[in-house]
Specification:
- The structure is a single chain.
- It contains twelve helices and ten strands.
- With 324 residues, it is of the alpha/beta class.
- It has a single domain, classed as Metal-dependent hydrolases (TIM Barrel, Alpha-Beta Barrel).
- The chain has a five-stranded parallel beta sheet with strand order 6-7-8-9-10.
Length: 324
């Protein structure tokens, strides 16, 4: 994220936006909702490329893919205001990428509540050099199979732009505030929601060249794939509304990141999605992330050197459409 920005409630004239409060002498900032409610404390490694580079060097990371913190999507705001905000964030990501072209790659963000504006901004950042975008697992309640989103998928195919899907606006969030459950339960469920909607909505059939990656190892989708497939077989009247194939047939059609925090879970993800469709993610620099940048994979003797090479580099190139 940028180190600072002006108060968006004052700029746009209504409330609901995140703003920053400096915490002097601590190299941290408080992310605050403009009703005064605290959201998250962030440190210098959330906005200072030099500090991020130090962490990368300390953990042997050659390059890092950077994208926007989902709380800053602002899909709920007026579309023209979110476009203005997205252009600010995307220009910042472009600046970081262009300043350190050998170390950082940026994924842009879009005003997803308006497809015309989203496609316009996608075309702009594609021309300027970002290879893809990050979007939410739902768009302010709209699922990713909704026909209103088809212009984005069509444009992403035409522009060779990748789409990274990250959970946000978690279903049931208000009903499970205790125990940090929106992050522990809601986020994995959101990724399964997104994958199921794209499969059952026929997105991968309608847009065969679309490159999509889902965060957090696909969330709860891999371990429930058997149930999902069984549902497709036993109740096609409820599930197979768009004449799609068995969900198992779409494994290998999209990517997931490999942040599972667990070697056994990672191996199951490999078995489910295939060795070529997992690219390592860290969720850096937040507490739920893997802040050792894949050490549990590097030190696992049961994982082949071939797989480690793929997950730590080759597969992300496939997702981004980087040809060598």
């Amino acid at each position: 994220m940028p180190e600072s920005w002006q108060r968006l409630d004052k700029k746009y004239g209504y409330k609901g936006f995140i703003y920053l409060e400096d915490e002097p002498a601590t190299n941290t900032k408080r992310m605050m909702r403009d009703d005064g409610v605290f959201f998250r404390r962030v440190s210098q490694n959330c906005w200072d490329p030099k500090v991020i580079l130090e962490d990368m060097d300390n953990h042997g990371v050659d390059m890092m893919l950077l994208c926007t913190i989902p709380v800053l999507f602002n899909y709920w705001a007026k579309a023209e205001d979110t476009l203005d905000w997205c252009m600010f964030l995307n220009d910042h990501l472009l600046q970081v990428q262009n300043t350190y072209p050998e170390r950082f790659i940026g994924l842009g963000t879009l005003p997803m509540q308006d497809m015309g504006l989203s496609v316009m901004e996608l075309e702009r950042i594609a021309q300027l050099g970002l290879p893809g975008v990050e979007i939410g697992s739902n768009i302010d309640g709209v699922n990713l199979d909704d026909e209103s989103l088809f212009p984005l998928y069509e444009a992403a195919e035409a522009l060779n732009m990748s789409i990274f899907v990250h959970p946000w606006n978690m279903m049931g969030e208000k009903e499970m505030q205790k125990y940090w459950l929106p992050w522990l339960v809601g986020m994995p469920a959101e990724e399964s929601r997104a994958i199921c909607n794209m499969i059952f909505g026929g997105i991968f059939d309608r847009f065969p060249k679309l490159r999509v990656m889902f965060a957090h190892g696909g969330g709860s989708f891999p371990i429930t794939l058997g149930r999902i497939s069984h549902g497709w077989h036993c109740r096609p009247d409820l599930v197979n509304l768009n004449d799609v194939k068995d969900p198992r047939d779409y494994m290998g059609r999209f990517w997931v990141d490999g942040i599972t925090h667990d070697s056994a879970a990672l191996k199951y993800v490999i078995e489910t999605f295939g060795i070529n469709k997992i690219a390592y993610g860290t969720d850096y620099p937040f507490p739920l992330g893997d802040l050792e940048h894949g050490k549990f994979i590097e030190t696992d003797p049961s994982l082949s050197p071939e797989f480690k090479k793929k997950i730590f580099g080759d597969n992300i190139k496939g997702f981004l459409g980087i040809l060598e």
